[in-house]
Sequence to fold (240 residues):
Amino acid sequence: MRGNWPLHLGWGRYAKEGHGQKESGRNGERTEKFTAGAVANQVDEPIATYVFDLMEKFAGYGFNKSHSAAYALVAYQTAWLKAHYPAAFMAAVLSSDMDNTDKVVVLIEECRQMKLVILPPAINMSTYRFAVNDDNHIVYGLGAIKGVGQAAIEDMLKERDDNGRFSGLYDLCKRVDLRKFNRRVLDALIRAGAFDEFDDNRAGHLAELPTALRVAEQHGKMAQTGQNDLFSLPGSSSER
Fold:
């Protein structure tokens, strides 16, 4: 409908705001404008008023009702997934909130209440996000460890996929890009227990870290020049 005033999207928003805020005074103003515009377009005044009343009535419940229906569907779908695939569902939820340590703690407690097994972070098992292994256990995501960046972890995962599992701290330091996988990242992973699969003596790993980094840097320089260093350490005690 178009007449002396334009019935466009801007007016639609103007009318919607009045309905949403339930401003009776301003709604009267809107009713008059709508009716006048409709009459100017050869619409009978009673019909125009009736149409406006229908819009006003719908605005009182239609928006909320449509959202309720959508949320109900999502709630049903997520409840079904949680009931039939609890490990995968909780792994996805943990991954979506893994930057929020407080939320991760709450979700892990929920997993325990659901009798789900959560495996600790492990260099040769974990990925960046939380995942589910073949035994239907949740594997802790390395990305949920504070101080560990996504670029560093993805670089490490690519090396692991391309050239096999790591045999220990020294082997990992030699094979990853230490510009990304720096001392801060390694320190955080050690403290979180990601190297416990090799040796659960975390203090020992922390003590070995400076030497491992030095050996790795020396190994990288030798590799660039095509030389072998006969005196570099072959690995930690856990790798021999």
Observations:
- The CA atoms of residues 79 and 204 lie 45 Å apart.
- Residues 1-6, 235-240 have pLDDT under 50 and may be disordered.
- Residues 45-84 form the longest helix (40 residues).
- Strands lie at 118-119, 131-132, 138-139.
